[in-house]
Amino acid sequence: MCGIVGINGTTEVCFDILGALKRLEYRGYDSAGMATLSKGAFFRKRVPGKLIQLEEKIRACPLPGTVGIGHTRWATHGAPTEKNAHPLEGKHVVLAHNGIIENHEALRAQFSMDPFDSETDSEGIVHLLDAYRERGMPLSEAMSQLFQVLQGSYALAILFRDEPDTLIGARSGSPLVVGYGREGRLFLASDVVAFSDFCDEVTYLEEGDWVELKGAQATIHPDGGSGVVVRPRVPIGETMKVLTKEPYRHFMRKEIQEQPAVLRHLLTTLSDPLKKNTVAWASLSNLCIVACGTSFYAGCVAKYWFEKVARLSVRVEIASEFRYNHPALPLGTGALFVSQSGETADTLAALRFAKQQGIFCIGIVNVPESSLAREADVLWQTHSGVEVGVASTKAFTAQLAVLWHLVEEAAEQRKALSSEEKKTLDRAFQTLPEQVEEALLLDASLQKLAARFGHTTSALYLGRGALHPIAMEGALKLKEISYIHAEGYAAGELKHGPIALVEDALPIVVLSPYDALFPKTLSNIQEVLARRGQVILFTDPEGAEAVHSLSHRLHLYTLPQVSPIFAPIVYTIPMQLFAYHVAASRGTDVDQPRNLAKSVTVE
Ligand code: M6R
Description:
binds 5-amino-5-deoxy-1-O-phosphono-D-mannitol, Rossmann fold, Glutamine Phosphoribosylpyrophosphate, subunit 1, domain 1
């Protein structure tokens, strides 16, 4: 989603701002801009579209100044045009905003005599600050007033025309980080990744903080007031620094390939006896898992695991629906929030809602500094490193591994698992990295398959039990990056409607290891073949044996024999590879697909 960058130094900043914006590209955006302050004048350039266009403009005519701000905008209010791109400029201020100002209409009404240049919700902030400065309000009073008036969520980077060499940041509901660079340069960004090449230490601003970056000094004011607070400076984690896709063409491809290594590392952290995160599973009567998108599908797999293995009743809720659905949360309910970014607005709002109801909240996140990580009562980290591709891959399989670990913990505490069963499952869990490695060997044949089906306009994905969510995840991956319509169904649902779609051109991806339900799925496959549909079957050696002579319309892919419990993790791999190769063959923007953002920080 939108990205903010600010730099205050002693040398020209415009190309470093550009570099930092490039590192935020992965968040998704559709326009970009930059502004600097030099000798009491603002300089500004904005473009609709991609950073490359901004770069061309800047290279043709660099912006002067040693202090500046930049922005990548993901349009919410107003189309992605130049006039709606940030930074937005007024008489006294120029600013970049992330988030949504909910009282923007009231602000437009308040300043109805002033012309508004854009259709954005953000421009009211410019008019407010201009009005405060016109009245001669000092900086600190203007910022305090601003906090009192603005409703909604915001992270701001602001330059004041008559505050030379000063960069202002403010946050409420959207993340903002201060970075301490070499040679006394100070940075501001919505994501550490923006400046991790320039800084070794950062401070994560808290809700209601605003910060003055002046000279080499960062002064933080808490609670939207004029007091001063000292917040810790923490080192930037190594994983934040590795942001190259080499030797692959896309980050997504690299991230798919990283999964065995991520799982290996995760297995060592999960078995760390020093871990402090504990949940009293036996005291819970039920669990509510809340998440969005791919993280929601991880929750759906976990529901199956928790109920089967730990005998704990689970419901899975889409975060954007949860708090508006008047959920009944009886005594003994625990809530588990799953999020790669830890900044998804819907998931965060759901967590805050659950906390207000006095519910114990467990978090699973990939970004340890995220808001969700800070606000959950108990936290598990997925340790996948930065995930740059908008389509989540390695974070998803890591979420599943962490979720499994919690299922086992719950099963033990609830005495739902014998020590023999636990040993067998543990052994199988430990072999996952190798099995994922084996699944990755399908790469070349899936590339060929993608070439064959790359022109399809629609696809169906079918799976049963814990593979039903993987069918939905496979369909989501295909939709996101190749823009092909796809739907995931429980295999048994085929005959209740989707079978009407079956025709020669429709690929139907079926996920079915040779388990107790295989014969039932085989019937569904027969139903499709009888109607001249194309089946792409992912199964194991026994399943392959059972279907090998079925039809030339059945495309067979054999995965390793895997414990049925862990099939969701292993069967995810070909879903990712197939979607990737289809998208790459269609030439879409795989890492930054149209209209999507890596972390959806607005409702
Ligand atoms: O950061 P989160 O896990 O909370 O994000 C949730 C969804 O926005 C995310 O999974 C989205 O669906 C991905 N683009 C899926 O690839």
